[in-house]
Amino acid sequence: MSLKGKVAVITGAGGGLGQATAVRFANDGAKLVLIDLSDQAMERTVSLVKEITQEIHTVVADVTNSNDVQNYVKEAVNTFGSIDVFYNNAGIEGLIKPTTEYEEEEFDKVIAVNTKGVFLGLKYVLQQMKKQKSGSIINTASVAGISTQANLSAYTASKHSVVGLTRTAAVENARLNIRVNAICPGPIDTDMVKHAAEKNNPNNPQEFYDLVKAMVPADRLGKPEEVASLVAYLGGDESGYINGSIIAIDGGMTSTYA
Predict the structure, then answer these.
(1) pTM score, whole prediction
(2) 233, 138 contact by CB (below 8 A)
(3) What is the CATH number of the domain that holds 247?
(4) What is the span of the domain harbouring residue 69?
(5) How many domains does the structure of the chain reveal?
(6) Mean pLDDT value across the chain
(7) β-strand partners of 137
(8) What's the pLDDT at 77?
(9) Does the residue 1 lie in any domain?
């Protein structure tokens, strides 16, 4: 499998999944446009990728801001000439609280990043891909987008939205040789899960990890590199007949609770 010569845009490039995917894409020969709100977080990814390739362009952007999104699309095209693969990945976990106790401001923030951010990415990247009449988009949803757990109302709502946006965009653009799929990671060993553990049980985060592991038939958290492998496959030509799919990568977690 190779992404050699393809231009790949990754949002949330400073996070665990974004970073692992950037490294995988670089190893597969892609030219990278890395997007993150945190310049510091993105630099950690850049330092890893520069060991593999120098064909990197970075843009600091707020994915909830239409002007920022249009700008990163423009920067990608001006730098490398096209957008062949778009990993629409930026997201936040929000609070872990019952719906009745969930702060409205925090709910709005999660929806803004996880739903509006994905929507804006789709809107403006698809405009470029329509000109090219080609492209592959991979949205990061979650097992929370195809199932549910208590105390995650905003996150669950936002990730269900990603599933809906994915299917709609896939149907709208299939005849233009543009594919749109979503991945639904289960618990992955990233900072997001670490933060969730600390929020859920500040005095004993390990208890949270143990509870999560117990929900996964594989009896472990996933690795970011395993998610990156799936994203790379969906971004490449070998997956050309996969469109509008919502793909769980969760160690069997959603099969257990289906």
Answers:
(1) 0.95
(2) no
(3) 3.40.50.720
(4) 7-186+223-256
(5) 1
(6) 94
(7) 86, 180
(8) 98
(9) no
